């Protein structure tokens, strides 16, 4: 009874599947996440949640579970309304009282927000990279000790050095070197 209460109280979708792929249990969080009630989905094949071409992945995962392997992966499944759901999934073998593997416990966590944030971060990095590399003026990133960590081509041309020559160099040494060269040229 306590175990059933724990499963129902979980914030993660918890689904019981037989080795043939048939769904045998479905908690409240699975109902919220996928839009199917337990009455609608229990007795259906788990492939109903797979996007087109995704049924093989489930078969492969269940084959690994048959061998006693716990599988962790990220995948995409479909809600009742066709919405694609990014999930972090753990699929663990379920054993009967004699120790034989008879099914799998699938625990799914919705990672759509994380995936959106990662996409925004990639977009932001790409935007920064483009601005950095294509700026008409010299740009550099230095570490706390003042050593160049990243420079754009414009800065390399301004100092008449290659990126390889400048990387790791202390920018103050470069400025002193440039000032020294200017002093020599003015005498």
Question: Key features?
Answer:
two-stranded antiparallel ribbon; 187 residues; 7 strands; alpha+beta; 43% helix; 8 helices
Describe this structure in words.
- Helices cover 43% and strands 25% of the residues.
- It starts with a helix and ends with a helix.
- It is α+β, with helices and mostly antiparallel strands and 187 residues long.
- It contains 8 helices and 7 strands.
- The model has no long low-confidence stretch (mean pLDDT 90).
SSE map:
Blueprint: H1 2-9, E1 13-18, E2 23-26, H2 28-34, H3 38-41, H4 55-66, E3 71-78, E4 84-95, E5 101-110, H5 112-134, E6 140-142, E7 148-151, H6 153-159, H7 163-166, H8 171-186
Antiparallel strand pairs: 1-2, 1-5, 3-4, 4-5, 6-7
**Biggest sheet, in brief?**
5 strands, antiparallel
Radius of gyration: 28 Å
Overall geometric form: elongated
- Helical run tally: 8
Order of strands across the widest beta sheet?
2-1-5-4-3
Output mean pLDDT. 90
- Summing up helix and strand content along with how strands pair, one would put the structural category as alpha+beta
């Amino acid at each position: 009874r306590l175990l059933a209460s724990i499963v129902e109280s979980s914030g993660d979708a918890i689904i019981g599947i037989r080795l043939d792929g048939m769904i045998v249990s479905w908690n409240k969080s699975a109902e919220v996440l996928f839009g199917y009630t337990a009455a609608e989905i229990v007795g259906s094949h788990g492939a109903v949640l797979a996007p087109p071409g995704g049924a093989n992945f489930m078969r492969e995962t269940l084959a690994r579970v048959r061998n006693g392997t716990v599988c962790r992966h990220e995948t995409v499944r479909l809600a009742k309304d066709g919405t694609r759901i990014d999930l972090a999934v753990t699929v663990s073998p379920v054993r009967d009282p004699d120790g034989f593997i008879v099914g799998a416990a699938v625990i799914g966590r919705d990672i759509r927000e994380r995936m959106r944030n990662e996409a925004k971060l990639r977009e932001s990095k790409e935007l920064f990279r483009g601005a950095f590399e294509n700026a008409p003026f010299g740009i550099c990133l230095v570490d706390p000790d003042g050593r160049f960590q990243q420079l754009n081509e414009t800065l390399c041309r301004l100092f008449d050095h290659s990126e390889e020559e400048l990387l790791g160099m202390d920018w103050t040494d470069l400025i002193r070197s440039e000032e020294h060269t200017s002093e020599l040229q003015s005498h």
